[in-house]
Amino acid sequence: MFKRNTASIGSALISAVLAITAIAIPLSMMNTAKNVPPIHDISTDLVNPPAFVAIAPLRADAPNPVAYDGIETAEQQRIGYPELQTLRYDQTQPELVAASTQAIENLGWELVNIDADKGIIEATDTTAWFSFKDDIVVRITDSENERLVDIRSKSRIGGSDLGKNAARIHGFIDALDGELAN
Questions:
Q1: Confidence (pLDDT) at 101
Q2: Is-contact 104 172, C-beta < 8 A?
Q3: Nearest in space to 147 (alpha carbons), one of 89, 99, 96, 95
Q4: Contacts 24+ apart (CB under 8 A), 179-182
Q5: Distant-in-sequence, close-in-space partners of 132: CB < 8 Å, separation ≥ 6
């Protein structure tokens, strides 16, 4: 009889935890949705965002096309994520390509393409909870005595990314800066 009561209490606790989790996750997502712009294409360059090249065929059947979402998205991003702008570095393009590639590997993203001559790196990240595929492109260009680094992250599916693409770009910037500090 003691074992049966223990099993019932244990089952009740497990059920309660699962029920709370099932309620908490959607509530958390709804709260996040209220605090971020309802967009799914984020770029540090809103005028000339990096283009997906090697990833384009992988997105052929995706509901969200490879093209940048345009002025309305850029305006919403400026308001929601004003800190996301083109990065400027003193390192050479090859150094930045190597550091960016290592940062992508450290973040666990799947490398799709590295074009070192053009300073383009493309990758795909799969979200943990729902396994959505989101694509990233990094563009490194020369500008006089510095290199400009732009990052774009776009969801393949969904109208709002709940801030995931901006968070991904922030994470990449932190990882890149960490690599360059080594």
A1: 98
A2: yes
A3: 89
A4: 179/99, 179/100, 179/102, 179/103, 179/106, 180/89, 180/91, 180/95, 180/96, 180/99
A5: 126, 155, 156, 157, 158
* Separation between Cα atoms, residue 10 and residue 151, nearest integer Å: 48
pLDDT per residue as tens digits for the range 152-174: 999 999 988 889 999 999 999 99
Q: Dihedral of the CA atoms 106, 164, 83, 42 (nearest 10)?
A: 100
Of 89, 182, 181, the residue nearest 138 (C-alpha)? 89
Percent of the chain residues past pLDDT 90, beyond the cut: 71
The 3-state DSSP class for residue 3 equals helix
Distances (CA, A) of 57 to 15, 16, 52, 88, 92: 44, 44, 9, 30, 30
Q: CB of 100 within 8 A of CB of 169?
A: no
Residue carrying structure tokens 């989101």: 134
What's the pLDDT score for residue 6?
Answer: 55
**27 — phi, psi (to 5°)?**
-65, -40
Residues 101 and 25 sit within 8 Å (Cβ to Cβ): no
Name the amino acid, one letter, at 73. T
Rounded (10°) CA dihedral 127, 138, 104, 131: 10
Three-state secondary-structure class, residue 87: strand
